[in-house]
Amino acid sequence: MTKPTTAVSTPSASAGREKGEPDLDALLRAIRRVTKNGYPSSPGTWERGADRLHALADELLPHASAQAQVASSRHLHQVIPTLKATLHNRPRPAGIEHVMVLAGQLRTVVHLLQQDPGDGVAETISRTIAMGKKGYAAGNFVSQDQLSKDFAAPRPVIQRAVNLLVHQGSLEFAGKRQLRVPVPGKPYRTVPEHIAQRLRERIASGVYRDGQALPSRRTLAKEFGCSTTAVARALADVRAEGLVAWTRGRPVTVINPRAPRRLTPIAPASNAANPPRPVQDLSLPALGAVCAEHE
Fold it and tell me: How far apart are CA 207 and CA 48, in angstroms?
């Protein structure tokens, strides 16, 4: 006697969607299938691909237009008019250019619909940093592309999450395109900032005294293992603070304003032709004596 088998229900991809909401993951797969199967190039292939993409756009646009009214979907109202213009200006027959441009615009709309404000992704990244997992320990450098790949989130979501994490102090900017997991008590400094800080410390501690010439740019670049351009930027920062000065053809010289300076007294000029005039006594007794002489 065989035991009755019970059907195990698996959650469908549309379980979390509301009624009338398109399956965004299925749309992405369909778009990818159209662009992938477009080779080898032939007019009939691209025409059928355009028909398929236009059908997908008809399915996607009503939901995207409704979501564009939501404040959190501020990018959708910029993308949807461009998508509608591409659909309206379909060439006959459609070629590879129309298909690829339309596919890219549809992907953008789907990604914008899939994004959340970034709170969930930011929380996941923050938890990963707190656990010190490989690649996310203190002092490690990461990029937004790496975050997008590791946490399977589109770039708009990652950008929002990064802004939240930087505001919280879980990440810090290290250049234009890099991020860094902060090290407690050690703020990140670029190479010029690092060199400028070392020069300030040496001037303050007296290693470089007032009036002393600094080592050449080439020597400093060799010491810090960087280019002379980075040294020049550091010297420019220190010069703007009034700690060093230089002129063309002469070395950089320390002009530490904290150091005491010797002042040479200026003697009054006198000669035989123009003897120095006596200083008139303007005290009250002297003025009284002058007034009595004139009475």
Answer: 76
How far is it, in rounded angstroms, from Cα 213 to Cα 249? 13
Report the 10 Å Cβ neighbour count for 153: 23
User: How far apart (Å, rounded) are the C-alpha atoms in residues 56 and 208?
Assistant: 70
Name 167's Cβ contacts closer than 8 Å, sequence gap at least 6: none
Per-residue pLDDT tens digits for 32-89: 888 775 555 666 778 888 888 888 888 888 888 887 776 555 567 777 888 888 888 8
Question: In terms of Cα–Cα distance, which of 83, 181, 98, 85 is closest to 135?
Answer: 181
- The span from the first CA to the last CA of the chain, in angstroms, equals 150
- Global pTM? 0.39
Residue with tokens 């591409």: 86
45 within 8 A of 36, measured Cβ to Cβ: no
